[in-house]
Design brief:
CATH architecture of the domain at 264-417: 2-Layer Sandwich
CATH class of the domain at 264-417: Alpha Beta
Largest sheet: 5 strands, antiparallel
Distance between the termini: 44 Å
Shape: elongated
Radius of gyration: 46 Å
CATH topology of the domain at 264-417: Heat Shock Protein 90
Bound molecules: adenosine-5'-diphosphate, magnesium ion
Number of strands: 12
Number of helices: 8
Length: 421
Amino acid sequence: MKRKDIFYKTKKNIIIISVTIVFLCLFIFTVITKTLYSSRLFNDVDRQILQQKDMLERISPNSINSNEGNILDEKGPSKSPRIPPNIIVIVYERGNIDFISPNAYFNITSLPDLAKIEKNKISVIEHNGYTFRCTSFDNKQYNMQVFINVNSELKSMKQLTNAIVISLIVLIIIAIILSAYLASRIIKPVREAYNKQVFFVQDASHEMRTPLAVIKGKLELLANSWGDTIDTHFEHISKMMSEVRSLEKLNSDLLLLSKEDVDSSINITEVNLNDFIEDLSDFYEDLADMQDKKFYVNKTKDNIKLQWDYNKIRRATIILIENAFKYTSSKGEITLTFEDINKSILIRVKDNGIGIKDEDKNRIFDRFFRSSDVRGKNINGSGIGLSLLKSICKTLEIGIKVGSQYGKGTEFILNVPKVMK
Ligand SMILES: Nc1ncnc2c1ncn2[C@@H]1O[C@H](COP(=O)(O)OP(=O)(O)O)[C@@H](O)[C@H]1O
Ligand SMILES: [Mg+2]
């Protein structure tokens, strides 16, 4: 399915991007660590070689007793304090081997390859499977070479590399698992919003189907009865007009709802509760007269000043009053009560209309939900009013309570904070 594809792809992309970032960071970290570690390790070795070179350059070649194989100390090289045990010194006199300090790697029959050792520079050579860093230099007729075996340093470098590779693999696996988990968490609300949107469009078009079908049927009927005068078909025309009106209402409700969903910004102004009450009651008193219903308003104290989003709270209250009118038969009573309780104003909208069945009470705030008897009785509506109310109340942190007895009446109570943040 296409919808699944989008989420699958997004999730895959999130995982790939985050793992690549983690990998790059770790890779850079590895390169820096290895470079620093190896340069520190070999700098030490090179420093020792160069120190030894310095010292040997300062020795007068006259002090070299080639017969005894001793250039460094009259007491013999093995006892010489000047050659540390890890350093090997080899001396040639005019191309002939003159001296080899005691060591486990070179002897007269197994000498390092001279060609590979650069003069006055640090070189790296291999000999019988061992690796050495070394240098070569001349002192009068002598050519001297200084070697240090670096196998242990290479071994520790290798161990470090292995440790880094293993931790890299473990970290990458952890990164994959974590990013997969995070990607699912990130996508969840997006998927929910997307599904909600899809269902919303489906429901909306479903709601439009009935009035459209009615209008189409009536129009076909009119089209087939040409020659008739309009008044013979007045009933059909008025039915069509009523369906068009409900489509109009549905359209404006949908617009309001999607606006509330997208832009839930709050516009707070100072509101005088009396003005608010008057604004509402004037219109509905007239409507009650027209519909032969009673509309009562119970005010509270005068001059209560509120910090309210006037339009939103007005819209919320109107949704409730209109429902109360709609779901109350003629001679019914609708009461709008305002109560001042500490930090809030309670707005109660009470009617003695058809009431709500217990099993419907949890569903009346769902989009497009209308109870079966309301649908059956052909009372106009879109089922959006209360879900819009719920959205508004969520934005403004207004509490909603419903009390209803089926067949007897309903009361909605809004708990509106006096000061909105
Ligand atoms: N005052 C009321 N009395 C009885 N039923 C109500 C009342 N208010 C709401 N309802 C029930 O809740 C449903 C949803 O209300 P609403 O979202 O305003 O949609 P609509 O009024 O367009 O049907 C109504 O269809 C009705 O079944
Ligand atoms: Mg309604």
